[in-house]
Give the backbone structure.
Amino acid sequence: MIRTRHLSVFVAMNAALAVATTAAAELETFLPLKDGGGETYGGETYYVEARFGTAAPADFLVDTGSGYLVINAATFAALREAGQAEYLRDVSGSMADGSKTKVSIYRVTSFQIGCCCVAKDVEAAVFPKTRRQILGLSALKKLAPFAVSFDPPQLALSQCAGQAAEAFDPATGNSPAIAAMQ
């Protein structure tokens, strides 16, 4: 009986390791995270550079506890003017401090994370009174599986292969894949 239990635990551990190894093998793009500690943002937080269309890149807080990509009023206004934000619905939700709020959810045509990962048709929550923008699960799940590591601080994404060559031209600062949608 003891041997059977040990064998079951051994088999379960090997199965878990096989799943983890398979998921790790699918991770193909590794993006550096900026440590939000210190004077810029404060706290134990990490940020990744991202952009919409040909807009200048901005820092997004990596928050796997947020169900949505969160954008501020300025970003929303630019996306709406460019025809890249489509209203979907209003939702009520709980904030990290326990308060309740109602926000509008929009479908954003395209969102580029780092140099070379483009997520299309991402749901974004508009928080008009915030400056901080958040990379939440609605964008991350488009590039799943994903992983966050802290040593070194990086975001590992999948489903970016083939995008890297066309995703970002550092000479012009443009993204042909996104610019074609404009």
Remarks:
- The longest strand covers residues 100-113.
